[in-house]
Amino acid sequence: MKVIVISxxxxxGKTALAKQQAKKLGYLHINLNPLIKEQRLYxxxxxxxxxxxxxxxKINKLLIKIIEYEKKSNTKGIIIDSHLSHYLPKKYVNxxxxxxxxLKTLKKRLEARKYSKEKVRENLDSEIFDxxxxxxxxxxxxxxxxxxxxxxxxxxxxxxxxxxxxxxS
Length: 169
Description:
The protein is an alpha/beta fold. The protein has a single domain (about 1-160), classed as P-loop containing nucleotide triphosphate hydrolases (Rossmann fold), CATH 3.40.50. The protein contains seven helices and seven strands, in the order E-H-E-H-E-E-H-E-E-H-H-H-E-H. The strands form two sheets. Strands 2-5-1-6-7 form a five-stranded parallel β-sheet, sandwiched between helices. Strands 3-4 form a two-stranded antiparallel ribbon. A hairpin with a 4-residue loop joins strand 3 (about 40-45) and strand 4. Helix 4 runs antiparallel to helix 5.
């Protein structure tokens, strides 16, 4: 079974890409963000930042349980989608896709979501400093970086994933 994580700054197109790829590959799609709320995988709600302070250990524990269960169920593959998915240990992940978007486009997307000015600025800074990418590199993931500013070349991405999936079963 293959496990692909899709991570990147909020607003860079992770969920759209994950849904598209899961459908194309016949994989299970897991959007981690609703699970964080449903399973209470957070310490508290940060009112100032309007976000949950998550517990990465709890998230990874749940994801590993899901992966192990799906392996036994003969699931073809899983795509995990979240700006936190790159924290999953490398040994469980075949490929880590990091989505990137031009700052003007990202700002428009975040404002359309009605994010506060502070939250927009925080996410733009995250994109500028490549926070998700650098953390994924630190975790030694097998990386594919995709620019989601414009429509994605699906054939190119699938070719990259096929090459990547041969690296580890």
